[in-house]
Design brief:
This protein is mainly alpha-helical. The chain is built from two helices and no strands. The longest helix has 74 residues. It is rod-shaped.
Length: 151
């Protein structure tokens, strides 16, 4: 009888340890998903800042080109009417398209990181829930064995 009690106690202790291990593993996975979510939120912000910076620099370069074009036309004695205005106007439009393309690309990159962050948050919640159930299974099995021993 004493050996049976020791066996039951050891079985229950093993079930408890297995339950604790499953819970710890799920908590670690949830923590990893949380860290990934925070990283992706940060990267989304970085992409937006990067887009604003790059488009600002591109706009500045475009303004220097317009100024150089105007100066070149003026230096050569050409008035800013007709074709010279069309050239400068086309340069302005092309530069604005480039600026918008940079902003669009960075906005999309930021949205992708936001989406990944949401997925990581969902995975974190799922890992926590799975850990709860995974920790219950060995305990229920252990209690079932304990009840069977006294039947």
């Amino acid at each position: 009888m004493c050996m049976a009690a020791v066996g039951l106690f050891a079985g229950m202790a093993g079930a408890v340890m297995q339950s604790m291990g499953a819970k710890a593993q799920a908590d670690a996975q949830a923590a990893e998903y949380k860290a990934r979510a925070l990283y992706n939120k940060r990267q989304a912000q970085v992409e937006r800042i990067k887009g604003a910076y790059e488009s600002g620099r591109l706009k500045e370069r475009g303004e220097r080109v317009y100024s150089a074009q105007k100066a070149a036309f003026s230096d050569s004695g050409v008035t800013l009417e007709g074709t010279p205005v069309d050239v400068v106007s086309d340069s302005v439009q092309q530069n604005e398209l480039d600026v918008q393309a940079v902003m669009w690309g960075q906005t999309l990159a930021g949205q992708n990181y936001d989406y990944e962050s949401k997925i990581n948050e969902m995975n974190r919640k799922s890992a926590k829930q799975a850990g709860f159930y995974a920790s219950l299974a060995p305990l229920l099995s252990g209690f079932s064995s304990l009840q069977g021993a006294f039947s």
